[in-house]
Structures are given as C-alpha cells and as structure tokens.
Amino acid sequence: QSKEWQAAYDIIEVLEGAQHEAYIVGGAVRDTLLGKKVHDVDVTTSATPYEVKALFTATVDVGIEHGTVLVIHPLSAIEVTTFRTDGEYRDHRRPNEVTFVRSLSEDLARRDFTINAMALTRQHQVIDLFHGQQDIKKGIIRAVGDAHARFSEDALRMLRAVRFAAQLRFVIAPITKQAIKDCAYDLTHIAVERIKMELDKAMLGDMGIAVQLLQETTLDHYLTGQWLVEQWRGFQIDEAQLGWAYFCYCNEPEVASILAAYRFSNKEKQFIKDVLAATHQRITDGYTVMDYYQYSERVLLGAAKIAYHRFKIPVESDKIKNNKSNLPLKNRQALAVTGYDLQVWCNKKPGKWLKEALNDIERAVLYGDVLNDKQQIKEWYCNDINER
Ligand code: ATP
Ligand code: MG
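Above: the input record for the complex with adenosine-5'-triphosphate. Below: its predicted structure, written as tokens.
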C-alpha cells in the first residue's frame, strides 16, 4: 500500500485511540473501488480541528475555518477534516461558514455525488449510505439527495458532474441531468478559475463525453467559446494546456477573448499561441528547421497531435524528437560568436547591422552552411562580406 494510505491509517488509529471517529473519505474511496491509482487520501473525523491539533505534533492550519487541518505524518501529509455540514449558501457558491457536526452520516450527506460520498474504516469496511458502490458498478454520476437543491446550493457541482463523467467515462443519472439543465444558468455565479479547474480535469478524460453533456445540459451556453462534440470526439491528450490550445484552434477568431475570459497566465498564453502557430505550419508546409529551432518539443508534439486529430497527418513523434535534438544549434546563447566578436571583426559600432548579422549567422549555422565554431564562422562571415 502507498505511503499516503499508511499515513492515513496511522492518523485514524491515533484519532480512534482518543475516542474520536475517523475514516478515509471521498475521492480515495471512490478510486480504490474503481481500481484506479489514488492520488490523495483525505481523512474525515468527529474530532474538532482543535482536538486534531492537540493529538499530533506537527500540523498546519490549511483551512481551519472549514475544519481542515493538515497533519504532517513522516510518510505523508494528510488533510484531516472535521465532520461538517455546509452553512448558508449565498449566490449559488460555496458557503462562507460551515457547521461542525458529530455524525459521519451528516458529513456524507453534504457531499456532491454518491460515488464521492463513501467512507472507509481502518478495518476496510465501506460505509455507503447512498449506494455509491452500486453507482460505481453501473457507471453513474448521481447527486446525493435532492439534485435541484444540491446544484442550487453550489452551481460548480454541475460542472463537476460533467468532469467526473469525462474522467470515469460514466453517464449522469437522468434526474441529476435534468436538474443540471434546470439550474444551468447558475453557472454564471461561479468564478472562472474554479470552472477552468474542472475543465482542466475533464480534458484529460473523454472530452467527447464532456462536450456532449455540456450541450445536452445547456451548460455550454454559460461558457465562453463554442464547444462542439464533432471537434472533440476521440481527441485524447495528457496535458490540459494542449486541450486549451486546441479549444483556441477551434475558436480561432475569438482567441483573444478566450484567453482573457479564462484568465490564462502569460506563460499559458505563450504556449497556446505557439501551438496555434505551429499547428498551422504543420498542416500547411510541415515543420521547417526554423520551427524545430523556435518551438519547444512540447509545442511541436502538441501541434502535431492536433494536426493528426484534424487532418490525420501522422504524428511521428520520434522523428520530431530527433529533428529537434539533432539541430546544429539549440538556442541563440549557444552560438559560438557574440555581438562583441562581430564588432571587433568589422571594427564597427553596434547598430541595426549587428542584429541582422547575428540573425544571418544563426540561420547559416542552423541550415548547415557553416559549423558553429568561432573561427569557421569568422571566415564564413568575413568572406561573405567581401563578396558583397
Ligand atoms: P479528485 O480525484 O479530482 O481530487 P475528489 O473526489 O477527491 O476528486 P475533490 O475536489 O478533491 O474531489 O474533493 C474531495 C471530496 O470532497 C469529494 O470526493 C466530495 O466528497 C467532496 N466535495 C468536493 N467538492 C464538493 C462540492 N462542490 N460539493 C460537495 N462536495 C464536494
Ligand atoms: Mg481530491
């Protein structure tokens, strides 16, 4: 068993030793039952945050107002959250305050979907008050309790339903799906950062399923850009940013507004822009030496995946990697001459000519006209000048 798992069991043992209840809960239970890799193990307990802190030597208050204390176990840090129900909901968003409760059942009842509302004891017994195991077997995302009420409380849950359907290749239960349709407008109350986080996770799953659901539930009306099933079906990727680049490719006239609407960082924007440019190159003339030089391997492979998805242009990832790594020059810094060398050779003051000369040399090295060696570049460059 993993380190996280062992750490969680140790922490539960300590809590139980102090007469508290404690369980593994949520995603870890779901993923274990699905036979999937568990990435983080959360513990829920009847102990209050102060009781938790008193029992462990090393803790961090990561979200104490929501009942969460991070317990630092030598094997792994584990989030321990007090049984709670959510307080008043304002504006269809997460509640500001929470109420601690003493029963597991109340805590499980405030969770979003039946597959996420199960707890596991230290004796490996599954506590499943809402038939989550049955829904896992059948592949169904189903709201816990009254679906309309649950989506009305927190509109993000609608997008979480779509995200889990895409990740797990599950369907959404009919009543739950109808409730999403009825509450879809409330998505407008949710911060775009939270929306993006769910879409990021969906993009690593089956986006054909996700986009189909966005349309069927009309959630797509409240998202910037067009989401079309035909464009996404069968597009399998392993990083969300490439999904966003593809989304921009599909909505090219609107790229600027999409980049702004989803609040991408400058680094993300640069990646997306590079992938867009590289994709166009890929589907028109194919990659040139200059493309291998100016784009990262990640951009080159990403754009090739898009070109394959849209036009069945073979990806040939080994060829791309080889061409990239066999370039005679990795970057401008690796050039064997500097602007200063050129000034000395030509006995000229810096100016526009210098930039052009460096560009010419860079290009000549890249295309193999001259080796990236100071002496050889000098000869090549000075001959060239004399010829002119
Ligand atoms: P992942 O594997 O993506 O982390 P997860 O199920 O662990 O999936 P988290 O967002 O980490 O999802 O949340 C942990 C648990 O908290 C969920 O399994 C669910 O029980 C509960 N939860 C999270 N967000 C909500 C929400 N908006 N409404 C109700 N319950 C929620
Ligand atoms: Mg989680």
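Notes for the reader.
The first strand starts at residue 22 and ends at 25.
The pocket of magnesium ion (ligand 2) is lined by residues 27, 40 (CB under 6 Å).
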